[in-house]
Amino acid sequence: xxxxxxxxxxxxxxxxxxxxxxPDEEKERAVLRRAYIDSVLGNLQSQLDxxxxxxxxxxKRKLEKKETED
Length: 70
What we know:
By secondary structure, the protein is mostly helical. 61% of the residues lie in helices and 9% in strands. Strands 1-2 form a two-stranded antiparallel ribbon. Strand 1 and strand 2 (60-62) form a beta hairpin. The protein is elongated and about 60 Å long.
């Protein structure tokens, strides 16, 4: 995410606190927030994809996804 987008999110947050947002600004804020969240989750996933566990014997194994219960 670009710094300009983060700055815009912060600008809209300040405006929402003090003056309120127009419907168009609320939509813009929702889109920017979703993009920010997606960016953070993507970065986290990338970090986890490159994470290894080292056991007592010094063996490295790739971190695996935990199975979810349905």
